[in-house]
Amino acid sequence: MLNINKKAGLVLLGLFFSHGISATTYTDAQRETAKEQVAAAVDKQAKLAQVMNDMIFSFAELGFQEIETSAYLTKHLAEQGFKIEQGIAGIPTAWVATWGSGKPVIALGTDLDGIPKASQKPGVAYHEPIVEGAPGHGEGHNSGQVVNIIAAMALKEYMSENNIEGTIMLWPGVAEEQLATKAYYVREGYFDDVDAVLYSHVGNRFGTFYGNPFFSGMVSIQYNFYGESAHSAGAPWRGKSALDAVELMSVGMNYRREHLRLAQRTHSVVVDGGDQPNVVPSKATSWYYFRELDYPHVKALWEVGNQMAEGAALMTDTRWDSTVMGTAWPGHYNKPMAMRAFENIQKVGMPEWSEEDILLAKSVQKEIGAEEIGLADTLMPVIAPPDPKKMTGGGSDDMGDISWVVPSMWLSYPSNIPNLPGHHWSNAVAMATPIAHKGIIAGAKAHAMTMIDLFTDPALMAEVNDYFENVQTKDMKYQSFLRDTDKPQIHLNKEIMSEFREKMKPFYYDPEKYDTYLEQLGVTYPTLKTQE
């Protein structure tokens, strides 16, 4: 036994707790028993999970406008004894919910927002909007908060009954589709005292990964050009066209693209091209996403964009400025946490799909011309990061910012259908059906089990912190892409929701009258296209 004096022991203990080492220690056998108990507690909440999932699906709100969704979730959490802080980081629909006290602090996060023009009746294997042209959950973000809340409720009950020390925290990814908020949460210090983050994201497989398997970092920038209006036919020489600047910037970026790294992804839309053809546009705006593999290359690509904007302004005698709409670091996920989470995923196993579930999946796949493989029936192996030299980039998620300031893991839970295009009406088909409900319960069990590990296994927390400090952040430290003057763009999607919200309200789920949302919509499960 080490011979250390009382003072040294207290110092060592302080270091342990400052790094999130668990205050409660269980044996392996005790942890296994605890996991069985929290999994059983999750099963008991299956009806609540279905109701919450279907309710959020029916709200179908876009980023920054998740008013009904956030009100519904925070009301439930407050009723469960969680302390709620509303409007965090200057974002009206963002919040933090906490329960418990002391270390470690384990946070559960996931997203809220839907996709434009993705309205779709669930359980219908062809395109049939609930409200034509309206938003919908064409990615499946309606399900993630349910995974987290059901897991948190199971842990809260167990911790209360067994005197487990620690704090549970829940938070929403507002406007994830715009990658527009999580960097602000970090900037405002909401993760300064958090020891580990468990992140949920809907998938069609059940598994996890570590490091960075495919994520790109990204900055989302609007370029605003300012000229002078004039009559387009009577005195065009007196005008300075901001739209010409937008178009010339696009031409410049497209020519420059040939000389950029293969890992870059650059795409844009014109969000303001002027008012009418006979007026020289005095203002015009284009919106760019610049994606690359790491902080230095994202910054360099952003600077290329600025150069193109400057050149376009010079050619058109206009002025320009830019607005940061969102940012995302490339994610990096904790290996010890991922490996322990996968052990728990293996304990849970895949959901048992019914014939109806599989028939719906194959019918949707057939409808969009994808391979008709049905639903996944095996776990996804843990994905290891590729050789960095072979990385070519891909999608982005602003969870990346959080993953670089707190040890984090990513759970993919099986609530959707394989081989779909993403950000599409077809991705909404399963999201208020038994497929989604079963995947939520599986995901909640896995999270609840991993939280038991984090709250009761000091050795795991030590490994988690060692990887974070001596592997992940040893040579790369987090620097926010945000400028000091940047603010959340909370006006986004307000006009779209103003157009559709009243049309959507009659279709909000009423669990007092209907057992499921399918029943409320009169959908026979599954509904297939009639053979012609």
UniProtKB/TrEMBL annotation:
InterPro entries: Amidohydrolase, Bact_exopeptidase_dim_dom, Peptidase_M20/M20A_hydrolases, Peptidase_M20_dimer. It comes from Aliiglaciecola lipolytica E3. The keyword Signal applies. Residues 1-23 form the signal peptide. One of its GO terms (biological process) is folic acid catabolic process. Keywords: Signal. Gene3D superfamilies: 3.30.70.360, Zn peptidases. Residues 217-301 form the Peptidase M20 dimerisation domain. One of its GO terms (cellular component) is cytoplasm. GO terms for molecular function: dipeptidase activity; para-aminobenzoyl-glutamate hydrolase activity. This is Aminobenzoyl-glutamate utilization protein B.
